[in-house]
Amino acid sequence: MEFTQLPHPSPTPADVREQAIADPGFGTVFTDHMISIDYEEERGWHNAVIGPREPIALDPATSVLHYAQEIFEGLKAYKHPDGNLGLFRPEANARRFNISADRMAMPHLPEDVFVQSVRELVRKDADWFPTVEGGSLYLRPFMFASEAFLGVRPAKKYKYLVIASPAGNYFKSGVPAVSIWVSRDYVRAAPGGTGAAKTGGNYAASLVPQAEAIAKGHDQVVFLDAVERKWIEELGGMNLFFVMDDGTVITPPLTGTILPGITRNSLIQLLKEQGLTIREERYSIDQWRADAESGKLVETMACGTAAVVTPVGKVEGPDGAFTIGSGGPGQLTQKLRETLVGIQRGTVPDPHGWVSTI
After folding, report:
1. Which domain holds residue 230?
2. Other CB atoms closer than 10 Å to residue 136's CB: what's the count?
3. Are 14 and 84 within one domain?
4. pLDDT tens digits for 42-71?
5. What is the pTM of this model?
6. How crowded is residue 297: how many other Cβ atoms within 10 Å of its Cβ?
């Protein structure tokens, strides 16, 4: 697809940009440009533009404001030793984007256009790559219903955009492992719902229990299934793995209520290559506690695009608390993180062809 290039009337001065990217945190600093493409039922995708990042004017009746027809993705660009930037499995994000679109009654965006749009923005705003240790350029492609009407039906007009944000570490530095609060009063998704789609409503549903977790001194909340309220599903934005003392690794299965994480899929492949037995099966909160207390469970790790691979050290809920292993990072968690981050940043071999250079 051909992108029209619009000039930026007032790009950020270099000294201001350098100060902003020195330690940007996560999700609060944004680059100068964005991608936008329009969709109409009669015309398909058109009007592809790369231009200044700016506010979006919406009619008060715009469908997304009333019926939440919206999806998004998250991926990162990494700097390699040779100075080039690379993307990690953007084709997988493109596929998942369209799976989410199916569930939300939205049009497919061609996968090659998705990947092209991300690459175009990274090229345009490469100077925004953060200088902080472990920094990356976080990319947020998203699509929403832009037709103005009141009536419960799929919209006939959509807008696709990509914005970029220089990112540091997702969790605060100095913390060896994250602490988890078990939500007993709230669920993230139910069978037949939108749990497997990356749509904003799923995250909106997690905000109250996440705030509850933070108020109790924890980093994240873990959700149980909506039916029996006993089976572990996922955190507010990350998948989970449980490492046993016999080398077996368990992760909850993708049954439609869990987001199919790209980091999750990558870890499963890496674990299998190390000769470990991976079981995608249900794992209960009671079993989690019992295995941790008996020593059968030696590590728990959370994974996602933003946090990559993160150890879980403590779990607490209304029924009490328990510690996993020593409460700090485990050997397998550290090894997997080093391998995956090394592949992403081009410091270790990439036999899978997961990284594409820009």
Report:
1. 178-345
2. 27
3. yes
4. 999 999 999 999 999 999 999 999 999 999
5. 0.95
6. 22
